[in-house]
Amino acid sequence: MASPKSDLPQGTLDLLILKTVALGPVHGYAIAQRLQQISRDVVQVPGGSLYPALHRLENRKLLSAEWRRTETGREAKFYRLTRRGRAHLNTGAASWQRLSEAVALILGIAEGGV
Amino acid sequence: MNWFGRLLRRKQQESHLDQELRFHIEQRVPDFRRSGLDDAEARRKARQQFGGADQVKEDCRDARGTRWLEDLLQDLRYAARGLWHHPGFALVIVFSLALSIGGNTAIFSVLNAVLCRSVPVVQPEQLYGLDITESKFRAPQRFSYPLFEQMRGAAGDGIAAMSRVARMYSRLAGACEQDIARVQLGSGE
């Protein structure tokens, strides 16, 4: 199966990951699952996008990582939001909100009625 | 962990990366088992769905930010191996490098002594070189004694003059043969 190319705009995946991790320490697989569930299958992040993004965010110190046991007793890498990550998430979410409202306004104009 | 630490723990990082991706893939296996596949088939399917794990690993390494240094070290190792297996070639390289560096150093030492160091006198900024530029009879930096006396008079303050080193054919008193002597004329102040 060709991994579906993510249609998310640039930088949006980072924001979605940060938000998911903000809910509590979580491993990569669970992040993908949650994104898919919460978005009702609209957002499907292939591993090829998810893990490089996670490592990039860890490298930028927006996420920190530690190895822990899952409920099933397996070792997994859990990600956690850092203070910097939270600040990044807040500003990113705010600007995304503003942009999406603006786009909705423009697209919502009734045609012929201006 | 800073980039240097990450570099030192490359082995550990690699195994962690491998473990992390394998965990992801194995989490998918039960889903495929439930859809009726046997274990091997379910694993194969899960790997397939994840996509090229090697490519993902490459991208993760890129995201780590030490990629340039890792690549550099790898290139250096490769180069060292190549030289080790071709000692003749290595010798030629070392020899030509030694030659060129040596030549460069020699020329620089000469230039440094001649051009860069100032003249070993008390006030080198008071030294001038005089030359006649507009004359039919110009001879480089040569003046007749009367001309020198005129210049000395014009300069007011006492100046001392020294001719450049010249070669002269002279017959020294008592010597039988003409010999070349290096002479330098000074004005005596």
Question: What do you see in this structure?
Answer:
The complex is a heterodimer of chains A (114) and B (189). Chain A is an alpha+beta fold and 114 residues long. Chain A contains 4 helices and 3 strands. In chain A, strands 1-3-2 form a 3-stranded antiparallel β-sheet. In chain A, a hairpin with a 5-residue loop joins strand 2 and strand 3. In chain A, helix 1 crosses helix 4. Chain A is elongated and about 60 Å long. Chain A starts with 11 loop residues before the first helix and ends in a 7-residue tail after the last helix. Residues 1-6 of chain A have low confidence and may be disordered. Chain B is mostly helical. Chain B has helices at 3-8, 10-34, 39-50, 53-64, 67-85, 87-116, 145-155; strands spanning 166-170, 179-183. Chain B has a two-stranded antiparallel ribbon. Chain B is rod-shaped. The mean pLDDT of chain B is 77. Classes of the chains: A alpha+beta (114), B mainly alpha (189). Chain A binds chain B through residues 1, 3, 27-29, 32, 46-48, 51-53, 55-56, 59, 67, 74-77, and chain B through 16, 19-21, 23-25, 27-28, 48-53, 55-56, 59-60, 62-65.
Radius of gyration of chain A: 17 Å
- What composes the largest sheet of chain B? 2 strands, antiparallel
Summarize the amount of helix of chain B as a percent range: 55-70%
Subunit arrangement of the protein: heterodimer
Helices and strands of chain A, in order, run as HEHHEEH
Q: What percentage of the residues of chain A does DSSP assign to strands (E)?
A: 5-15%
Through-space gap between termini of chain B: 74 Å
Fraction of residues in helix of chain A: 40-55%
Low-confidence stretches of chain A: 1-6
Q: What is the 3D form of chain A?
A: elongated
Q: What low-confidence regions of chain B span 5 or more consecutive residues with pLDDT below 50?
A: none
Arrangement of strands in the largest sheet of chain A: 1-3-2
The count of strands of chain B amounts to 2
Strand-helix topology:
The complex is a heterodimer of chains A (114) and B (189).
Chain A (H helix, E strand, L loop, with lengths): L11 H11 L3 E2 H11 L8 H13 L3 E7 L5 E7 L1 H25 L7
Antiparallel strand pairs in A: 1-3, 2-3
Helix pairs in contact in A: 1-4
Chain B lengths: L2 H6 L1 H25 L4 H12 L2 H12 L2 H19 L1 H30 L28 H11 L10 E5 L8 E5 L6
Antiparallel strand pairs in B: 1-2
